Amino acid sequence: MKTFKSDDTFKIAGRGTTKIVRVPNPDRLIRPEGVPEVGEIVEIDGDRYEVRGVDIFMKLLSPPFAGDNVGLLVKRLTEET
Predict the structure, then answer these.
(1) Is the dihedral angle over the CA atoms 1, 22, 16, 63 positive or is it negative?
(2) pTM
(3) In 3-state terms, what secondary structure has residue 80?
(4) Assigned superfamily of 2-76
(5) Separation between Cα atoms, residue 4 and residue 23, nearest integer Å
(6) pLDDT tens digit string along 3-50?
(7) 67 or 70: which leads in pLDDT
(8) Of 47, 48, 18, 51, which is closest to residue 34 (Cα–Cα)?
């Protein structure tokens, strides 16, 4: 499971929660191992989320490089008790 630290969180009406995270490993291109795919389970700030979408602010049709910020549209997963 990939682990990230959230830089910011936005609640978007009609869309859900978006967490802004930084792509790790600042010395190389990350796709596909560092950026989560849609449907993948990730850990952000100690909580588990399912990724519903990945957005890159102000970039079109280019994979994110290490150090870029990406927005993850997420659904929080609750722990079963």
Answers:
(1) negative
(2) 0.76
(3) coil
(4) Translation factors (2.40.30.10)
(5) 8
(6) 899 999 999 898 899 999 988 765 555 444 677 888 999 999 999 999
(7) 70
(8) 51
